[in-house]
Amino acid sequence: MSSTRICLAVGVAGIAVLVSPVRASAGTPDPSAVLGKALVQGRGVTFTETEKSWIGDDRSDPTIFRTSGVVAFGKGRLTGASIKRVTKSGKTFRFLIAGGKTYARGGLWSDALPAGKSWAYSPDLAMRPYQASGQSIDVFDPAALRVVYATRSGQAMRQKVKGVAATRYSGIVTAKALCAVAAACREEFGKSSPVKIGWSLWVDGHGRIVRLTTQWARKPDRDKRVIGGGGQTDTYYARWGARVVVKAPPPAQVDAG
C-alpha cells in the first residue's frame, strides 16, 4: 500500500503438526506477562486468520472471512492496524486503522469513491485496532489472557506451528468471566452471556502466542431476542516485536463523504 508505511511483510498461514503429548512445563512463560512486555512503541505483529460464523443451527454454509495484516503497538496498548479481508466469494476489503480513525476501500467503499481518491472515511466506521481480528478472545489484552490461561485443562501438547516449536494449551472459558475484564468480549457477547468459548492456544518457548483457535455456539432465547448461532476462528501470529509503523493515508487520497 503506497499510503501505508509498514516495515513488515504479512506471512501466510501454515499448518500445526502434532509431535508428542507432554505435561505443561513449569518453565513456560505466562503469555499474559510476555504480552505486557511486548506492547512497545513502534513494534507490532503480523497475523493471518480464517473466521467462520453462522446463524441458527445450520453450519453447512457459514459466512467466511480470511484476514491478513499487521497490528501496531504503542506503550502498553495498540495504536493501529492494516488488514486485508477476503470474503468466501472473493471480494476483497482493506481497512486502515490509524490516529483513532478507520479508512476503507473495496466493495461499496470503493464503488462510491470519486476519481483520484483511494480511501473512504466515515465517522460511522470506527474500528478499534483489536477489531482487526475476529477472534472471540482478544490476545492483545493481558487481563483477558490471564482469565483464559487460568482455565487451561488436560495435558499440554508439544507441536510445531509453521515450523516453530510450541506448546498447545486448551480449555473452556465462560463469556461471563471473560467479559468481566475484557471490553472486546462485552461488545460481542454482552455482560451476562451464558456462552462458553472453547479455546486452544499455542505458545512458543518465549511465551509468545503463535496460534489461537476458538469456537462457541449460542442458542436463541425463548423470546427470540437473542439470535442463535456460533463461530469458529483460527489465527496465526508471527514476528512479534518487528518494527511496524501504520500511518493514515495522505488527506488528498481520502474521500470523507
Detailed description of the structure:
The chain is mainly beta. It contains five helices and 13 strands. It has helices spanning 31-38, 108-111, 142-149, 175-179, 183-189; strands spanning 16-21, 43-55, 63-74, 77-87, 92-98, 101-105, 119-121, 152-161, 164-174, 196-204, 209-218, 229-243, 254-255. Strands 1-8-9-10-11-12-2-3-4-5-6-7-13 form a 13-stranded mixed sheet. α1 runs antiparallel to α3. The longest helix is centred in the first third of the chain and has 8 residues, at 31-38. It starts with 15 loop residues before the first strand and ends with a strand. The model is unreliable at 1-26 (pLDDT under 50).
Defining key terms:
13-stranded mixed sheet, 257 residues, disordered N terminus, mainly beta
Describe the structure concisely:
By secondary structure, the protein is mainly beta.
Order of helices and strands: EHEEEEEHEHEEHHEEEE
Question: First CA to last CA: what distance?
Answer: 22 Å
Largest sheet: 13 strands, mixed
Poorly predicted residue ranges: 1-26
Tell me the helix content: 10-25%
- Would you report the number of β strands? 13
Q: How many helix segments?
A: 5
Q: Assign the structural class, choosing from mainly alpha, mainly beta, alpha/beta, alpha+beta, or little secondary structure.
A: mainly beta
| Oligomeric assembly | single chain
**Rg, Cα atoms, Å:** 19 Å
Overall form: globular
Q: Average pLDDT, to the nearest integer?
A: 87
